[in-house]
Write the structure tokens for this entry.
Amino acid sequence: MLLYMSTSREARSSMPLHSVSVAGVVVREDGRLLAIRRADNGTWELPGGVLELDETPEAGVAREVLEETGIHVEVDELTGVYKNTTRGVVALVFRCKPSGGIERTSSESTAVAWLTPDEVAERMAEVFAIRLLDALDGNGPHVRSHDGKRLIPVESQLMLDGLASGDA
């Protein structure tokens, strides 16, 4: 498919704006998963953040995990792509192995913990827990959308896409 990119004012003002973030599902040999409690809102999530313009997704994951947790990682594979339809954030999630370092908090995290999958389901909101659980199932990469609180079922998303394109 050929895409035409225009730099006109009209094209720029109508182009959707998205932010790309990366996150790491760091899995220890005992099956526990690395998680942080965010300093800004107190929620439990994966370590991750905004991808810098000049870095690869894999380098961004390694940087973010280290910055937020003190843990060095080896990036294995992409396990999912998750879009927050409300905020326009697309998150690339990668399974990783810890390769060194010592757990510590940062200005972005008030706690760092190795959780069991059951603890993940208990502590994290659905839209964040699913990223960890998807990474463990081996059937990825998964592609999911959410509104910031709840997952949008695939059938609903397909219907919305059809309405937006005029097919429905």
